[in-house]
Design brief:
About 5% of the residues lie in helices and about 50% in strands. It has about 425 residues and is mostly beta strands. The protein has 2 domains: about 150 residues, Galactose-binding domain-like (Jelly Rolls), CATH 2.60.120.260; about 260 residues, no CATH class. It has a 9-stranded antiparallel beta sheet. Strands 14, 18, 21, 22, 23, 25, 26, 28 and 29 form a 9-stranded antiparallel beta sheet that branches. The chain has a 5-stranded antiparallel beta sheet with strand order 1-2-12-7-10.
């Protein structure tokens, strides 16, 4: 089924204008979210809403419109046991719809949309005669609010139901001066209270060969994560030849080390540490090229609760001889069931130190998003400067987005890091 179909062609008499009304088929596998965020993956699958038995569970479907107007909804590809009644609502305007196992499609109704931005359609259970509520595969949507720029996850090509439901990742690409050998990279990270949602990766010190930041992995587990990619291009760490493997040289107390895959592959380390929202954490990365076509990367983490620098790990990367480069930070949600929840993070006081010991402040950054945002499947992404610090924000279907590749400048702090490198662990 094509996700975008021409429904009709209207010729306005006397004006000579052709107006195309469009009908969208919105797959629920990529655009619906369960109210049960911890285990909503059981009912929202790539086939849509499935195995729905709990009457307290409800679902929300999102699409973004570029103009006010009408939206008319119907369902398609339903599987119904017995009879059920569901309630569909937009902005507290509800419509009750009866489902019968003899019908594969059902008309839902029409709403008047008075503003641009994201529209949220909720689907709630009323009653059923058998064990399950209807299994819903997709929604057909038409109306005058629909345009070619209506945003939603259109299909599952490239596993985009997964990426789309995770939401767009957002990045700050720090602009550095030319012609220097950056040996140290420093950043400060603050996650405001209430923004430390499950599935979040607040990545502070990204560089050309890896990344270093902090995650929310579960209600009881949080990681300080440092990873370095192998120069061997693969998503399977087991396929990396010995000559291309990342070598661990040392690690800090309590740090777990191993390999990672799926998004490139290489060496990984993490410290279980219950960092706190509202506190500011410091990240320090060292990158030193060797004389044997290798580069050693070492990561240090400073928690204000402990008031000391901790070693995370030191990795040697083969077939690489470079100082630190391509400095960036990013915000990512790695849990698809949490993609309808907004999160944000602040990054401040970025510095690099060259091989002669000179500190240089980085106060300009270019904002970008990933392919989910670039394809306009999701447009809930933002970045900029707030209260003197860079910030990133994503997910949750907020309306005001930042134009990708915008360059932002924060006011220089002039507060270079006070670090005695010789005393680092």
């Amino acid at each position: 089924m094509k996700s975008l179909k021409l429904l009709s062609l209207i010729v306005l008499g006397g004006l000579g204008l052709n107006v195309q009304a469009q009908n969208l088929s919105i797959p629920l596998g990529g655009n619906a979210y369960s109210s049960k965020h911890t285990d909503g993956g059981r009912t929202v699958t790539n086939r849509g809403i499935q195995n729905w038995t709990d009457p307290k569970e409800y679902f929300t479907v999102y699409l973004r419109v570029e103009k006010p107007g009408t939206l008319t909804f119907s369902t398609e590809g339903n599987t119904v046991e017995g009879k059920s009644n569901l309630e569909f609502a937009i902005q507290n305007q509800t419509k009750k719809v009866a489902f019968d196992e003899t019908e594969k499609t059902s008309t839902i109704g029409t709403w008047e949309i008075k503003d641009t931005g994201y529209v949220a359609l909720t689907i709630k259970a009323l009653d059923k005669t058998k064990d399950r509520f209807p299994a819903l595969q997709s929604l057909n949507v038409s109306g005058t609010a629909i345009t070619a720029k209506t945003a939603y996850v259109k299909n599952n090509e490239g596993n985009f139901f997964h990426w789309g439901r995770r939401g767009p990742s957002v990045h700050l690409n720090y602009i550095q001066p030319d012609g220097l050998n950056a040996e140290w990279y420093y950043n400060e990270v603050t996650v405001p209270k209430g923004e430390d949602l499950l599935g979040s990766y607040f990545m502070a010190n990204g560089f050309g060969e890896g990344y270093f930041g902090m995650q929310v992995n579960s209600p009881t587990e949080r990681h300080i994560l440092f990873s370095v990619w192998s120069p061997f291009n693969t998503d399977d760490p087991k396929s990396i030849p010995e000559s291309h493997k990342i070598k661990m040289l040392k690690k800090g107390e309590g740090v777990h080390t191993g390999e990672f895959g799926n998004e490139g592959a290489g060496g990984q380390s993490y410290l279980n540490y219950m960092w706190k929202a509202g506190n500011t954490y410091k990240f320090l990365l060292h990158g030193l090229p060797g004389t044997d076509s290798t580069t050693t990367y070492t990561a240090y983490f400073f928690a204000p609760e402990l008031n000391k620098w901790q070693l995370i790990a030191s990795f040697k990367r083969p077939r690489t001889q470079t100082y630190l480069k391509r400095f960036h930070s990013f915000l990512e949600n790695f849990s698809p069931v949490q993609g309808d929840q907004t999160r944000m993070v602040k990054f401040n006081n970025q510095w690099i130190c060259d091989d002669k010991g000179n500190w240089i402040e980085l106060n300009k950054a270019r904002f970008t998003t990933d392919n989910t945002g670039n394809k306009a499947y999701r447009m809930d992404y933002a970045g900029g400067v707030e209260q003197g610090a860079f910030f990133l924000k994503n997910c949750g279907f907020f309306n005001n987005y930042t134009i990708p590749r915008t360059i932002f400048s924060r006011k220089e702090t002039g507060k270079k890091p006070e670090i005695d490198f010789a005393k680092l662990p």
